[in-house]
Amino acid sequence: MHILVLGATGRVGSHIVKYALQDGHQVTALVRTPDKINTKHDRLTIVQGNVLESHDLLRAIEGTNAVISALNTDGTTTLSQSMPLLINAMEQEDIQRIITVGTAGILQSRTEPGKLRYQSSDSRRKSSRAAEEHEQVYTLLKESTLEWTIVCPTYLPDGEVRGNYRIERDVLPEGGTEITVGDTAEFTYRQLGDRQFINARVGICY
User: Residue 110's domain spans which residues?
Assistant: First the structure.
């Protein structure tokens, strides 16, 4: 399979690139700063560009079969601005499958089912800016014709794969407080071959 990875220089994205290459896939990474990618591999193509530029996305997505986006918010509106461009690029290239990394804030609240977690007493975060960005992405994907999955980790410390995590569709497993970067990346990557969570959010935690 040929996979486009967005956010490939980030904590989660860099792990996803590693897992995909280990499994024999072809990987294209669209990055602003190619020097930030330390991995060298004959199946890794690095495209310098910006996810906010349609022509860069089209250049990177050509010939791929699926997209994994591990873009984060970084206090900007890059997520919400880039997603319509990405959806358009995927539709132009007739690519259906997209897996993104979101946040537990956009899962359904357990205490107030009519609300998302970040809108309810479930959330302890003082700022809702990042969750609002991820909610816009969720809304855009829901309105698209794509086969999407949004992996929604809670607190995300650095750490390798432990494998003892819990997952649940559309809500965070009860009592979950954290999940490592390694496990989040591994689960996100595995969704390429798993159709259990098509058009769904997935809460993940220990």
Answer: 2-205
d(CA 131, CA 65): 28
pTM for the complete prediction? Answer: 0.96
In this structure, are residues 204 and 187 in contact, taking their beta carbons and an 8 Å threshold? Answer: yes
What sign does the dihedral 66-198-70-158 (CA atoms) show? negative
pLDDT, tens digit (0-9, with 9 covering 90-100), for 116-150: 999 998 877 777 899 999 999 999 999 999 999 99
The CATH number that applies at residue 61 is 3.40.50.720
Number of domains in the chain: 1
Q: CA 192: distance to chain centroid?
A: 12
As a whole number of angstroms, the distance between CA 155 and CA 189 comes to 19
What is the pLDDT, as a whole number, of residue 47?
Answer: 97
Place of tokens 């700063």: 33
Residue 150 dihedral angles phi and psi, to the nearest 5°: -115, 115
